[in-house]
UniProtKB/TrEMBL annotation:
Record-annotated ER-bound oxygenase mpaB/mpaB'/Rubber oxygenase catalytic domain positions: 55-255
Protein name: Oxygenase MpaB family protein
Enzyme category, top tier: oxidoreductase
The entry's keywords: Oxidoreductase
InterPro entries for this protein: MPAB/Lcp_cat_dom (IPR018713)
EC number: 1.-.-.-
Length: 364
């Protein structure tokens, strides 16, 4: 297929860019947490529920806006089995090999990520389980014998296996915490870390998500100290490497190939994709590097000087971060990256969470 044919077949209208609920919806419309009942008649709040620390973090506008850049940073640069799965089995990589990947594919891949996770985080239990079943079935195909051609002793990967599924969940939720602590303006104060107890509570609650995806119980952390110990246990899978992204069968960096081919297949209609990609993905990337831990930066191969500059960038970024979490921009991000169903899930969860916090304050 020629590049001309590819771009003609991938004209991007405004309607295609926005997408419909079907871009994100699987197994029917998701049921918001609290809208159904358990067998004992009590409300089914899903994995976390109102008043939880996870909802406190997740529902903040900063987390909603910066979720994709935070998670992408760690998942595409730090945890090697995820990088290997993207390299070998992701549609972007496959299309790059075929010469058909476009800028719209990059945009659509990123847009689906947030909205397809929202039902697991903000839906009732059945909704969360249905979405996980769908993702689990897709991930069954994401397996390979080689994580890193430069370190064959690491063995292979299996996205639906307990280890890699657990880390997929944890490398979604821990970066969310980093983004929240670095960029969320709250309590009338500049962004700041949660208390040690709040951070422990967040990690403990994330355990429900780790259980959903099939993590081994003995691995599931319940405190931040246990989370740090888990990183140490799997340190070899987070060690920096210059060869993880190299496709074993092609000998080329898969991400560079995706970018190269998408540029070759550029169509004038793709120009409308550039603003959201720049604002949501590119602009926060370097400040987000400074927002994560020093150990996370080292796992991505970020040197001392670049790391120090990224920390400074995260501080200098605060005025922009403040504007990006204001309602107009947040609504823009929710519509593009989270979708119509997630819009309802977020609104419902925020209302429940606000009520729970008010009730807690009244009884304090």
């Amino acid at each position: 297929m020629s590049a001309t044919t590819v771009t003609q077949n991938n004209r991007v209208s405004k309607e295609k860019m926005l997408g419909t609920a079907m871009r994100w919806r699987r197994f029917g419309e998701p049921v918001p947490a609290g809208r159904s009942r358990k067998e004992d008649g009590t409300p089914d709040y899903g994995l976390f529920g109102p008043g939880s620390m996870v909802w406190e973090v997740l529902l903040h506008p900063a987390s909603i806006v910066f979720e994709i850049s935070a998670q992408a940073l760690i998942q595409t640069n730090a945890y090697k089995p995820i990088i290997a799965g993207l390299r070998d089995r992701d549609p972007l990589s496959i299309k790059a090999r075929e010469g058909t990947v476009t800028l719209y594919d990059l945009y659509d891949r990123g847009a689906r990520n947030s909205g397809m996770h929202a039902p697991m985080w903000l839906g009732d239990t059945e909704t969360a389980e249905r979405m996980w079943k769908h993702l689990h079935n897709i991930h069954k195909k994401v397996t390979g014998d080689v994580i890193d051609i430069g370190k064959p002793e690491l063995g292979g990967y299996a996205a639906s296996g307990g280890r890699d599924a657990m880390w997929a969940a944890l490398t979604e939720m821990h970066p969310l915490l980093w983004a929240y602590e670095a960029f969320a303006f709250r309590d009338g104060r500049l962004p700041h870390r949660l208390s040690p107890g709040g951070r422990d509570q967040y990690i403990k609650e994330v355990g429900a998500y780790a259980r959903l995806v099939g993590a081994a119980e003995e691995d599931i952390p319940t405190t931040m100290a246990e989370m740090n110990a888990l990183y140490e246990k799997y340190a070899d899978l987070f060690a920096p490497s210059t060869t993880t992204k190299i496709m074993p069968d092609v000998g080329k960096d898969y991400l560079k190939e995706v970018i190269r081919v998408s540029r070759a297949n550029f169509h004038i209609s793709h120009l409308r994709l550039i603003p959201p990609l720049l604002l949501i993905n590119v602009l926060p990337s370097f400040p987000m590097t400074g927002a994560v831990s020093g150990k996370a930066r080292r796992s991505m191969g970020v040197g001392r000087v670049k790391g120090a500059l990224s920390v400074l960038a995260s501080k200098a970024f605060l005025p922009i971060a403040y504007l990006m979490q204001r309602p107009p921009f947040e609504r823009y991000v929710i519509r593009l990256m989270w979708g119509p169903d997630a819009t309802k899930l977020i609104a419902s969860a925020r209302a429940l969470h606000k009520e729970a916090l008010a009730a807690r304050a009244d009884t304090a």
